[in-house]
């Protein structure tokens, strides 16, 4: 967003936010959650299965989720939350939790909601190294939108992460995404 010193512009922008919030409160199904430790750990547990049956986000009818984290409330559409969580299925963030570890869920870093990771491809390791598959169209879109940066040499920095277990369909052992966000100033 470009900087603008115009009070009327800022006021209009603020009113848009108020209208979006009013629409959520008045016209949407909202599932409200509280997390006792997220303010210390920086993670939310997003349940999708319990005792072998779909539950949580997999069965919720909510349009929107509201997570109370300490004294702050994070509001996110169910579809966006599902999209982010799907990127973590089969990784080290796909864990057991809940009462007696009878639930499956995603241990979702809160920063991934605020600064969503973008997955660009997969990797397969073998005795000789690694083969990768990268979606060039996604990289171009990320560059154009400013979600990925190219340095003066034409390089982009990507992160290769190891999956907790091979992907069920592709058998990929690794994923390729944008780098972890740099430390935030506050």
Structural summary, described in words:
By secondary structure, the chain is α+β, with helices and mostly antiparallel strands. The protein is built from five helices and eleven strands. The protein has two domains: 27-114, no CATH class; 119-178, no CATH class. A four-stranded antiparallel sheet has the order 3-2-7-6. The chain has a four-stranded antiparallel sheet with strand order 9-8-11-10. It has a three-stranded mixed sheet with strand order 1-4-5. The longest helix is centred in the N-terminal third of the chain and has 21 residues, at 7-27. The radius of gyration is 19 Å and the shape is flat.
Q: What are the defining features of this structure?
A:
186 residues; alpha+beta; 2 domains; 4-stranded antiparallel β-sheet; 11 strands
Percent range for helical residues?
25-40%
* Number of distinct beta strands: 11
Q: What is the tally of helical segments? A: 5
Contiguous uncertain segments of 5+ residues = none
Write a compact overview of the structure shown.
The chain is α+β, with helices and mostly antiparallel strands and 186 residues long.
